[in-house]
Design goal:
- The chain is an alpha+beta fold and about 180 residues long.
- Helices cover about 30% and strands about 20% of the residues.
- The protein has five helices and four strands, in the order H-H-H-E-H-E-E-H-E.
- A hairpin with a 2-residue loop joins strand 2 (about 120-125) and strand 3.
- The longest helix is centred in the N-terminal third of the chain and has 23 residues, at about 1-25.
- The chain is elongated.
Length: about 180
């Protein structure tokens, strides 16, 4: 009784498989004729679509306006982004994390006012914006800043590994003797 039931099941599976494969073919391909424009699932658009018509104009067209210059009459240009070659493994101190960019920028501005000699960054690691301080190649230096930030009101400050500037830009911190002369 086991063998005939197995044979019947095998035959049914074979017949169903053949029917399914026969149903997957298109009617026009099996009839031997090619579809006319307007026939098929794309409504004939495939025959009239030419992707090259939608290419953007050459990049030369983007430079119609002259590039801005940095003369005394105009506003100063923003600094260029840091080149990847200038980044080395190091440490920063994270003081805040949020999914709201406005909140992160507000914390950064407040921190810059409280600690004017330090550099602060907003780092985006999806989906979170993180406010970080410093460019330290040695963890010891980052630890000193973390302690200072904790005492200054950022109790959740902690050290994180990050890519930092190998040579911090001049003007980030003022030397001790660089005070404004008396008037």
């Amino acid at each position: 009784m086991g063998r005939p039931a197995h044979a019947v099941t095998l035959i049914l599976h074979s017949v169903l498989s053949l029917l399914m494969m026969a149903g997957c073919g298109s009617g026009s391909a099996s009839s031997g004729r090619t579809p006319s424009p307007g026939e098929g699932s794309a409504g004939g658009y495939e025959d009239t679509f030419h992707p090259s018509e939608f290419d953007p104009p050459p990049a030369v067209a983007l430079r119609e306006k002259p590039l801005p210059t940095n003369d005394s009459a105009s506003t100063p240009l923003l600094p260029l982004p840091i080149a990847l070659e200038d980044l080395v493994p190091g440490f920063r101190v994270q003081i805040f994390s949020s999914t709201d960019i406005d909140e992160a920028n507000g914390i950064k501005t407040t921190a810059e006012e409280r600690f004017p000699g330090e550099r602060f960054y907003v780092v985006y690691e999806p989906p979170t914006y993180k406010v970080r301080a410093g460019d330290f190649q040695q963890r010891y230096d980052a630890d000193r800043l973390a302690k200072s930030l904790r005492e200054g009101g950022y109790s959740d400050s902690w050290i994180v590994p990050d890519r930092v500037q190998s040579k911090p830009s001049s003007g980030a911190t003022e030397p001790d003797g660089a005070k404004e002369p008396p008037r």
